[in-house]
Amino acid sequence: MKKLVLVLSFIIGLSYVAGAQIAAKSPEQRAAQHTKALQKHLNLSQAQAAQVQTAFLTMATRMDSLKSVVTTDKKQKQLMARSIKLETKKRVFAILNDTQKQQYATWEKIKRENHKEKKAETTVGQG
């Protein structure tokens, strides 16, 4: 019995330590990830990829600084985050050509639908 408790506590401790080692991505890593996804779906040129990378890096940096702001108004933070994302979307949209804009709109629509489906699945599974 004592051995079982010891083994279980050891396993729980290991899982806790393993979870603590996962670090948040830096703004540069997040910007690179967003750029890579857009490059994959929209066939961006090198110049476009560099401009998009800059836009996403700016967004990621601003979002990180927003997280450090101490405020009691959660809605205000959400509105600020939404405005940062919208501004970035406009900057990226300005970089794309007409074909890429259509592909981007289609890709976003598909992502939104997939998100709604996953959200519906989790609410059905919980209820």
How would you portray this structure in words?
This protein has 127 residues and is an all-alpha fold. The protein has one domain (27-126). 86% of the residues lie in helices and 0% in strands. The protein has five helices and no strands. It has helices at 2-20, 27-42, 46-68, 74-95, 98-126. Helix 2 packs antiparallel against helix 3. It is elongated and about 70 Å long. The model has no long low-confidence stretch (mean pLDDT 86).
Quaternary state, please? single chain
Largest sheet composition = none
Strand-residue proportion: under 5%
Total of domains: 1
The topology string of helices and strands comes to HHHHH
What structural class should be given to the helix and strand makeup? Answer: mainly alpha
Helix fraction, binned, reads over 70%
Average of per-residue pLDDT values: 86
End-to-end span in angstroms?
37 Å
Keywords: Signal
Protein name: LTXXQ motif family protein
Layout of helices and strands:
Elements: H1 2-20, H2 27-42, H3 46-68, H4 74-95, H5 98-126
Helix pairs in contact: 2-3, 3-4
